[in-house]
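Notes from the 1:1 (GR / supervisor)

We went over the backlog. Supervisor wanted to see one worked example end to end before approving the batch request, so GR pasted a single chain during the call. The sequence is below; no edits were made to it. Supervisor asked that the structure be written out right there so they could see what the output format looks like.
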Amino acid sequence: MHPVRHGAGSPNPPSDSTAMPSFANFARPLVLAALPTLLAGNTSMLSGQVVERLDPAIEELLPADVQLERIVDGLDWSEGPVWRKSGGYLLFSDIPRNTIYRWKEGEGLSVFLRPAGYIRDDPAGHELGTNGLAFDAQDRLVMADHGNRQIARLDETTFTRTTLADRYQGKRLNSPNDLVIHSNGDIYFTDPPYGLRDLNRNPAKELDFNGVYRLRPNGELTLITRELTFPNGIALSPDERTLYVAVSDPQNPVWMAYDVAPDGSVSGGRVFFDASPLMREDRRGAPDGLTVDVHGNLWATGPGGVLIISPEGKHLGTILTGQATSNAAFGDDGSTLYLTADMNIIRVRTTTRGVGF
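Structure output shown during the call:
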């Protein structure tokens, strides 16, 4: 979630397993007459300089003739891309539209789930939908349910969602933003206040901090840190020994790194990369969502587009999208990078592969 797109929280989500309303839809085609600006098959190439190359190592990651291809536009604020290998398609959130969309090559765009988040008729703001998305080892969709202030799992056979976490020590979570799942089933997630109107000043905010958490398969919720002002994107290194967390604070725009023990517990905390020198008016965005390739490079959305940062913390270059870019995910055979960039979905062909392909 980009820090300039503030929205509303939501009171009283369901606490356990709650049936979806009858108008929830899975893979239902969009009626394009009602949404004429959404592209369902047409694509366009973005012109101009698309990559700022700062280190020779980037030549091994992006081809010399790399292009940025816009495959969807006309969205409101896109987020949370995730590739479903079993189906060969991309899912992503449009938070204000309270929708998870599905995009597949040759088929275009369709609604996967609507409403994706908040379902009552008394919204406190416009950011009602899901944010970050991930698939667990059983191919079940796990969602940072921004609007309902919870981490939830979707059951596509029974049209229900199960709340996995919505409180810490009895107090409501703020608005879970992004998540990553460890191979042992642990879910790490961030909980900034972006889903709450007026952010930290919202009276519905019950926690006096913005946390990063570990949720174990047995339901145990552990606070990793409460020290970050606006924790946002989150990812694991390929060996799962390092947890990365983006901080989307304009006054302290950094990516943090934490040590992960074999049992999944987290310790330490150090600045991995400081984006302060890159924060300029001509480079929209702040540290936000991120993904990692098999070599351990971070593909981290931030000032200007997508920063490519080596495992040693060296800035190799930036994919210049020209717009606030919220998140990234590898898809297809693992070499295609999909970007949620404001109103657009963009894809980039790389010469590396994402983790898990």
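Supervisor's comment: The chain has one domain: 17-349.
Batch request approved.
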